[in-house]
Amino acid sequence: MSINDDRVKLPINANPVVVHEPSRFNQGGQADSYSFARDTMLNGTAEAAVYNSKKLEDAVHEMGLKLKHHEENIIFLKAQKNGLDNSILDMQVTLGKYQTASESGSENEELSHVRNVEETLEHILIHEKSAAGIWCQLKHHHGTQASHLPLMKDVVGIVSMLGNVDDDNLSRLLSDYLGLETMLAIVCKTCDGIKALETYDKEGHINKTLGLHGLGASIGRPLDDRFLVICLEKLRPYPDDFIADDPQRRLYILKPRLPNGESPPGFLGFAVNMVNIDSVNLYCATSTGYGLRETLFYNLFSRLHVYKTREDMLQALPCIRHGAISLDGGMIKHDGLFSLGKREIDVKFPKSSGRSNMPQNYFEIKRQIKEMKWKKERAVEDMQREQALLERARSNFDIKKQEYLKFLAQSSTYATQQNFRSEGST
Description:
- The chain has helices at 33-43, 46-126, 131-142, 168-178, 180-183, 191-197, 211-218, 279-283, 293-301, 310-315, 361-425; strands spanning 155-158, 164-165, 186-188, 229-231, 267-270, 275-276, 305-307, 324-326, 331-334, 337-338.
- By secondary structure, the chain is of the alpha+beta class.
- The strands form three sheets. The protein has a five-stranded mixed sheet. Strands 1-3-4 form a three-stranded mixed sheet. It has a two-stranded antiparallel ribbon with strand order 2-6.
- β8 and β9 form a beta hairpin.
- The longest helix has 81 residues, at 46-126.
């Protein structure tokens, strides 16, 4: 809002105010403009009058700047809100296209995934006297209530149930690589969870009435064999970055290079990134904020390579340091240790529902829409605050401007009267 910068020239014999009597103040505590102007003329010099006029003018100018500041803020916030509305609409249209394209087969894929999970569970339950079998029995019969038991509340799950794989053949190969004992391992968040699973008497013997042993005995499935328990908080997490904008938070691992600098033919990727993890365990499986991929699966697979064929795998030997597998059954446990023959593991990772085949940016777009909606809400709230501040600033500006103009008018009138009287007396 522009302010008139033209200033009224006061007569040189105008006098400024020095003090104000209480009777000359209005109800708002401000001096009456005429009295203020009159006292200014009577008690001071022309320079002081100009000074007081400048002081009022500066106050009006400052209020005008505040008013303009709030107006500009509202214009900016409105533009921001409109931009967010347009972006949200565009992204929702994009999501709609993805959803329509996948809608026809999604139901069958989901049913297939459920059947695969049930199949994995059935194969675990075949090992009825294993720790994993006892744990799954408890979960199967008591559902979510089982997780509230002191014995189970720290357990994340069984290795074979904590991920799924897109390809059934790859699932068998990864399960074979890990072995049955690891596939049946129980995963706990903390060391306290391990202590709850197995307790000891004063002589150091296992107390068969408590923990998982007591649970097995109570259902007629005594636990006598050793079993693996993995403690997430004791695992060293992957130290580097994730792949940018990847909804599955896959690990950013440099691709292998042969001595000639080329990527080995037939290399498909790293096993740790080929396991899909549900959203619950993707981000915060531990109290320190690490997910299952960078803790559990990174420690199980490390930088295990996956190749199309044995021939591809053998050609890539110079750059294999942490083992490799091929889709036709080849396996290198680690540098120099080859696993020959064939073994079938009944407990394997379930096949995924196919949702991971959705474009990678699908989930990123959903996240961005949520973030934009939050920003839009903040912009609307800021706009409401700025509007209230604008109304208050406009009211204060109008009052101060009227006071300033009235002061100038009264000062000019009083100065003219004084000049007329001076001329008449001479």
